[in-house]
Amino acid sequence: MNMNDIIYKKREGNSLAKEEIEYFINGYVKDEIPDYQASALLMAIYFMQMDKRETFELTNAMRYSGDTIDLSGISGIKVDKHSTGGVGDKTTLIVAPIASACGVPIAKMSGRGLGFTGGTVDKLESIPGFRTSLEPEEFLGQVNDIGISVIGQTAHITPADKKLYALRDVTSTVDNFSLIASSIMSKKLAAGSDAIVLDVKCGNGAFMENLSDATVLGNIMTEIGESAGRKTVAVITDMSQPLGKAIGNSLEVIESIETLKGKGPSDITELAIYLSAVMIYIGGKADSLEEGRLKAEKVLESGEALEKFREMIVAQGGQGEVIDDYSLFPRHSVQKKILAKDSGYVSEIKARNIGLASQHTGAGRATKEDDIDLSAGIYLYKKVGDRVVSGDVLATFYGNDKLKVANAVKEAEKAFIITTKEVECPLLIKKMIGMSDEQKE
Ligand code: URA
Questions:
Q1: Which residues contact 51 (CB under 8 A, 6 or more apart)?
Q2: Most C-beta atoms within 10 A of its C-beta, which of 95, 160, 210, 318?
């Protein structure tokens, strides 16, 4: 077997055999296959696609390219949750404590942000002292003790995905169904949970810009999960405008805490309750989705979910006092507002431009090596459908570098569209895949 033949085979539109996929993944991880041949194969896959079998085999080859986590020492149905990536998406910080407070063990590995999308690990690191890197025994021990831990993915899990994702990022081969599905599902399967809830983002701030593409991706990922013996549900949700009002690491943690206090924006609250309900149901802690939703609402109202979040922060070395005192988060020194030029209704807040603007403030990375400013980001005062009067503040930009903040404002000005006609809010939860109609009741 050699790479040249494999690239040729895919370039001509043929299916690759399991052994050929494994040869590529194993050789690439061991640095035996150079980036130029891997790039050529990725581009051939991008144009010629992979079928279901190939995608499943690619997922498995990446899943077993490094360590896999054994969560069998934790009793109960462990439920993982993953978002395909969006702007202002802090849902994990809210659903993980809600589901845990309802008895679902959460042993979750999350990623960092790249480009205009944020990452849970960066957000958690804005909490002073919070450790996102725990040894496996400490991670499992914490889940057994308090029912929740969220950490960063270790270097030893799916190294093939880590290398390939970085290569895809610089070869314009990210947005392909099979490559996205295998990347996400290899990590989820290696991370060991029994059931997986996928939040497939759809809109201009996501890899999948329309509902039909998001549906294809959701179907592929749920089939991979089920074929691997894991209950897998995908929920397709809106990412045409940012989720919630805060974008940027510490700003998003503060908004998550506010949501756990029952004072969050309506969209993030609705999505968090919905995803938590699915997790509680497939985690066996409710007999129906409706019961899952009621349980999620109950622990939000009682403050148990908030206390669970505090417990996790303290267990991982963070300052639990941040829950009551937001001045403990990293501080910004520069702040700038943009104002509405016209009166009318907000018809669009393009998530992609806001994500890029947030990256410009210093909140996101352009390359994996970049440092980020944990205090930087954007706070939106208006959402799609809101009425505005000329001169109203649309958003405030935060950071520690005047030039960066000015660049962010320039980018974000393209994001807001104001019309004279009244506008309806986009539908937040668009579709669910992987549950029968009966189960959805
Ligand atoms: N998130 C991932 O982990 N991988 C992708 O390919 C896209 C989004």
A1: 15
A2: 95
Residue span(s) of the chain under CATH 3.90.1170.30 come to 331-419
- On the question of pLDDT at 366 being above 90, the answer is no
Q: Tell me which fold the domain 79-156+163-324+429-440 belongs to.
A: Pyrimidine Nucleoside Phosphorylase; Chain A, domain 2 (3.40.1030)
Confidence of residue 153 (pLDDT cuts 50, 70, 90): confident
Give me the half-sphere count of Cα atoms (radius 13 Å) on the Cβ side of residue 355: 27
- Paired with 148 in beta bridges are 106
CB 283 within 8 A of CB 104: yes
* CA–CA separation, 38 and 63 (whole Å): 18
> Which value, to the nearest 10 degrees, does the dihedral of the CA atoms of residues 410, 121, 218, 190 take?
150
Q: Please give the structure tokens belonging to residue 269.
A: 């609250």
- For residue 2, list its beta bridge partners: none
**CA 368 to centroid of ligand 1, rounded, Å:** 14
Q: Classify 331-419 by CATH class.
A: alpha beta
Contact yes or no for 221/199 (Cβ under 8 A): no
Q: Which one, of 375, 377, 359, lies nearest residue 326 by Cα?
A: 375
Which residue is associated with the tokens 């201009």? 204
- Beta pairing class for 334-339 and 231-238: unpaired
Residue span(s) of the chain under CATH 3.40.1030.10 come to 79-156+163-324+429-440
**Are 382 and 388 a contacting pair, CB within 8 Å?**
yes
156 is catalytic: no
What is the rounded (10 degree) CA torsion for 214, 434, 87, 175?
-40
- What's the gap between Cα 135 and its chain centre? 23
Give the closest residue to 192 by CA, choosing from 300, 68, 105, 278. 68
pLDDT at position 155 is 81
Pocket test for ligand 1, best of 180, 200, 208, 220 (most atoms within 8 A of CB): 180
Intervals of CATH 1.20.970.10 along the chain: 3-48
pLDDT exceeds cutoff 80 at 367: no
d(CA 6, CA 288): 47
For the 3-48 domain, the top CATH level (class) is mainly alpha
Residue with tokens 């909490």: 127
Ligand 1, atom 3: nearest CA belongs to which residue?
A: 184
84 lines ligand 1 (CB under 6 A): yes
Position 237 scores a pLDDT of 97
